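Practice problem 4.
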């Protein structure tokens, strides 16, 4: 069984089609709308740094809700901050504790600080 193509397109004939003036205008108007549109409403509240943007103090205050939404590299930074605070058990194998913290955070309140979850609330 063979199938014949109903149309063919050589590279010269397909590539020779250039956008029309109307097409260029439509693209330009769409670009202007996207750039000039901006936000439709002001964002309320006080801006705060995310754990990835802040120093060690903010990393120590990371909640389980924030932690579970983080990328693996940001989770490592949180665990490294907990280890640097003096937790020798976490400092011994921080890569292990990245996963342990994620597992423990699935059982506790999303507002619980990861530091307290990992250390059992003892500092």
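Answer key:
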């Amino acid at each position: 069984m063979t199938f014949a193509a109903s149309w063919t397109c050589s590279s010269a004939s397909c590539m020779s089609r250039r956008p029309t003036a109307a097409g260029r205008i439509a693209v330009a108007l769409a670009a202007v709308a996207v750039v000039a549109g901006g936000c439709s409403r002001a964002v309320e509240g006080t801006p705060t740094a995310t754990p990835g943007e802040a120093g060690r103090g903010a990393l120590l205050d990371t909640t389980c809700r924030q932690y579970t939404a983080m990328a693996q590299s940001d989770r490592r930074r949180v665990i490294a901050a907990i280890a640097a605070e003096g937790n020798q058990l976490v400092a011994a194998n921080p890569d292990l504790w990245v996963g342990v913290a994620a597992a423990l955070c699935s059982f506790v309140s999303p507002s619980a600080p990861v530091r307290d979850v990992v250390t059992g609330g003892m500092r």
